[in-house]
């Protein structure tokens, strides 16, 4: 019997929260899906338009979304882009309650773009990322 993708992900023992979701998604895509997945994130649209990614990164493969917990629904992924407008970490003078609660699903082109938008994450040492001579410009595309 073939080991399921969820079982393979869980066997990796990844922590994919608190800023580490990008690194976890990269490891999942490389080790479980052989680099054939697409990086997607549920982000807050207000902050994304200002160049800041607040939300959660997962891998889309075979029409399903995966993160360090295994499968994640599109709805749950989008929920990560919904913010509490009273949270001081996400407050902005121009942000309305509607802005805080407006998520968007975006796709990233590659590992480098994930790391560009989630610089707080670090790729585990056992993942060969190759040299980063330059990071791509432009925003991730909306899905």
Helix share bin: 25-40%
Radius of gyration: 15 Å
- Helices, by number, come to 6
Major sheet: 6 strands, antiparallel
Give a description of the structure.
With 143 residues, this protein is α+β, with helices and mostly antiparallel strands. It has one domain (5-142). It has helices at residues 5-12, 21-31, 45-48, 74-79, 97-100, 111-117, and strands at 38-44, 55-61, 64-67, 70-72, 103-108, 141-142. It is elongated and about 50 Å long. Residues 122-143 have low confidence and may be disordered.
What labels describe this entry?
143 residues; single chain; alpha+beta; 28% helix; six-stranded antiparallel sheet; 6 helices
Concise structural overview:
The protein contains 6 helices and 6 strands; from the N terminus they run ααβαβββααβαβ.
SSE inventory with pairings:
Blueprint: H1 5-12, H2 21-31, E1 38-44, H3 45-48, E2 55-61, E3 64-67, E4 70-72, H4 74-79, H5 97-100, E5 103-108, H6 111-117, E6 141-142
Antiparallel strand pairs: 1-2, 1-5, 2-3, 3-4, 5-6
């Amino acid at each position: 019997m073939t080991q399921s993708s969820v079982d393979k992900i869980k066997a990796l023992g990844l922590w994919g929260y608190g800023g580490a979701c990008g690194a976890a998604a990269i490891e999942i895509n490389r080790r479980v899906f052989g680099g054939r997945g697409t990086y997607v994130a549920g982000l807050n649209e207000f902050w994304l338009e200002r160049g800041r990614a607040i939300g959660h990164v997962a891998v889309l493969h075979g029409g399903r979304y995966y993160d360090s917990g295994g499968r994640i629904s599109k709805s749950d992924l989008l929920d990560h882009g919904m913010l509490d407008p009273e949270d001081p970490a996400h407050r902005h003078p121009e942000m309305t309650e509607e802005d805080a609660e407006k998520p968007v699903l975006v796709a990233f082109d590659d590992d480098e773009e994930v790391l560009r938008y989630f610089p707080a994450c670090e790729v585990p040492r056992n993942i060969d990322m190759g040299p980063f001579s330059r990071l791509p410009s432009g925003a991730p595309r909306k899905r």
